[in-house]
Design brief:
There is one protein chain. The protein is of the alpha+beta class. Helix content is 15%, strand content 26%. It has 2 helices and 9 strands; from the N terminus they run E-E-E-H-E-E-H-E-E-E-E. The chain has helices at residues 20-27, 59-68; strands at residues 3-6, 10-13, 18-19, 46-51, 56-58, 74-75, 80-81, 85-89, 115-117. The strands form 3 sheets. A 5-stranded mixed β-sheet has the order 2-1-8-4-6, covered by helices on one side. Strands 3-7 form a two-stranded antiparallel sheet. A hairpin with a 3-residue loop joins strand 1 (3-6) and strand 2. It starts with a strand and ends with a strand.
Amino acid sequence: MPTLTVEGYGAFEVTDGKRLVLAIEQDAKVDILHACGGNARCTTCRVEFIAGEPSRMTVAEQERLKARGLSGVRLSCQILCEHDMTVRAISRFEGSGRPDAGSQPQTSIMPPPEWIEE
Ligand code: FES
């Protein structure tokens, strides 16, 4: 099982292949935002990688990051926990002023992923 480390929260063994946004929320117990429900639309699930950044990316993630002019961050709803990773949770519900963190992301990456190898 891969180890997910969230800076300031600790290290957690997570199910291989679990969506990163769900692992951060359910295993690390971090109140990460996922305003669009994990559909690569909102970018509120963004994280910074400290180690173990995946080399592949979904087309949906690449397009959304480009459209928002974001660099140095990844969308945790578009990433699977397939190896050890260390991330910084930079977009949390606390202090966001939002009524909730967003609807619950499905267990599979949505939209169905098309992968780009970097
Ligand atoms: S882009 Fe909205 S939850 Fe990931």
